[in-house]
Amino acid sequence: MALIKRPQGWEIPESEATPESTYLNRRQVLKRAAGLAIAPVLASTQAQADHSGETDPLVTGKQTNPPAADLYPVLRNKTFKLDRHITNERVAAMFNNFYEFSTTSKTNIWKLVEHFETHPWTIKVEGLVKEHKTYDVDALVRQMTLEERLYRLRCVEAWAMAVPWTGFPMKAFIDLVQPLSSARFVKMTTFMDPDNAPGQKPRFGIFPSGPWPYVEALSMEEATNELTMLVTGIYGHPLTKQHGDPIRLITPWKYGFKSIKSIVKIEFVKDQPATFWNTSIPHEYDLVANVNPNISHRRWSQSSEWLIDAEKERRPTVIYNGYGKWVAHLYDT
Ligand SMILES: Nc1nc2c(c(=O)[nH]1)N[C@H]1C(S)=C(S)[C@@H](COP(=O)(O)O)O[C@H]1N2
Ligand SMILES: [Mo]
Question: Which of 235, 261, 302 to mutate to test the pocket of ligand 1 (most atoms within 8 A of CB)?
Answer without folding.
Answer: 261
